[in-house]
Amino acid sequence: LMVARSGGRYAVTQTLMRGPCDLAEALLGPELMCFSMVDHPSELRGFVEDATSVFIHALCEQLARIPRIQGGMVNPFGIWAPGTVVRTQCDATAFLSARHYAEWYLPHDVRICEAADFSIIHLHSCSLHVVDVLLGVERPHAIQVTLETGPNVPTLAELAPVFRRILETKPLIVDGPLSDAEVA
């Protein structure tokens, strides 16, 4: 429908899709998701595997229907790439250690990222403890960070060292409200 309505006037992108970690949290809630790693590991693994397969299937169905722009596609952040693109997210890492994310969810995020030529994973500035895990794998190709607002969130100055570490290995997209001083 979006392709038909666009009439070629604007780029159609992959719809917002939550990654396997976020789907487990949405279905189970944060507490049960965490307890399930210990109390029901085989059921949780089965769910995460199924969620990953469904994500990839839905992505491929979308990619087959989205027209290419000069041989490539635009990602949901408005950046063109010379091939297919995927954006996934793992907001529910806020409830997990980096080790638990690496063991339980990273392989599935990698599998999703392998379903397209170019891949981005979405994080929030309050949950960057998984950055080193993501930097240790080839995919996702890029990391996108949404800056949080509020009284107890990291400042841009506090985030800068993490952003520098990301940029040593992968492209970084940062979005969110910035003051004129922060932009400068």
How would you describe this protein?
The chain has helices at residues 2-6, 20-39, 41-65, 98-104, 106-113, 131-135, 156-167, 180-183, and strands spanning 73-74, 80-81, 85-89, 118-124, 142-146, 172-175. The strands form two sheets. Strands 3-4-5-6 form a four-stranded parallel sheet. It is an alpha/beta fold. The chain is globular and about 50 Å long. Strand 5, helix 7 and strand 6 (172-175) form a beta-alpha-beta unit.
What attributes characterize this protein structure?
single chain, 184 residues, alpha/beta, 4-stranded parallel β-sheet, two-stranded antiparallel sheet
Structure at a glance:
The protein is built from 8 helices and 6 strands, in the order αααβββααβαβαβα.
Strand order of the largest sheet: 3-4-5-6
Which radius of gyration do the C-alpha atoms yield? 17 Å
Bin the helical content.
Answer: 40-55%
Unreliable sequence segments: none
Mean pLDDT: 96
Following the backbone from N to C, one meets helices and strands in this order, namely HHHEEEHHEHEHEH
Number of helices: 8
Secondary structure layout plus pairing:
Layout: H1 2-6, H2 20-39, H3 41-65, E1 73-74, E2 80-81, E3 85-89, H4 98-104, H5 106-113, E4 118-124, H6 131-135, E5 142-146, H7 156-167, E6 172-175, H8 180-183
Parallel strand pairs: 3-4, 4-5, 5-6
Antiparallel strand pairs: 1-2
